[in-house]
Amino acid sequence: MNLKDFIYNIPKAELHLHLEGSLEPDLKLKLSKKNNIDIGQTTIEEVKKSYEFNDLTSFLAVYYPAMNVLQDESDFYNLAIEYLKKAKENNVKYVELFFDPQAHTSRNIPFETVINGYYKAVSEASNYGIKANLIMCFLRDMSAESALEHYNMAKPYRDKILGIGLDSDERDNPPLKFEKVFALAKEDGYHITMHCDIDQKNSINHIEDCLYKIKVERIDHGTNIVENEELVEFAIKNKIGFTCCPVSNSFVTSDMKGKEIKYLLDKGALVTVNSDDPAYFQSYISNDLYELAKKMDLDKEDIVKLVKNSFNIAWISDEEKENYLKQVDKFVEENK
Fold first, then answer.
1. Whole-prediction pTM value?
2. Quick one: pLDDT at residue 320?
């Protein structure tokens, strides 16, 4: 089996996927018509053309207005179901899905509309041969008070939310801004992760605070850690996971950070590959792996390491991890 087919068919876990970032142009157009939302585009081609950006700020300027088409519970359900269909095509077996409630409550969409729509889809993930969980993220460019307010909103839905994350514009919004709410999340038994986007102002300081002060289990993106070998060694020793997204990296900077990913992989860090916002970057997880493999001349052994890392840092039981890893080993054995 050639490398591309190997990558596309190997069982995978995806741990860095924004549901709002899986809004494909055709669904966006369909929902805009259903909900009578003027999005300024009337064809799929026009929607695709609007998905143009060259840094994180310009991406977010397109990303958030697009969410206006999401209005009722069925919209959130359909968005998640459409992603699960794509995940099945990529042989994803397990996925943890980010969602951003503040992006919707700020549009006067009730919290329960968002969580109930998404969770209904999560409950049906097994129909696609997938197990799925939800991670609620706070928008870091909103206030710490807003994050705490939404944390409290989520309390009645504790059984529907696996973890708490932090995303959006990192400029002047360091991890410690949200130290209080993440401490509460840890006390309440949530898993926690935070975005440390690539090449941001004070990236390495943010990573250090995530590791030493917030004490996250995973860092989303986070490849700037290579700037400090002490932090790399700390992350390896403490089995901190890194959910990297090479294709989206290449859109918001001039580099997919392949060298950094390969360096961390070879060092033994639990680095993984994910698709981030696949509708906007037109790349789902298999393509991310393949593009990284082409760029960095990865072999099948590298791909297996990346895939196994994803299952090993997933927030599932040891028994489930063992089962998924056996599936990977079986695939590898049958496709030498």
1. 0.97
2. 98
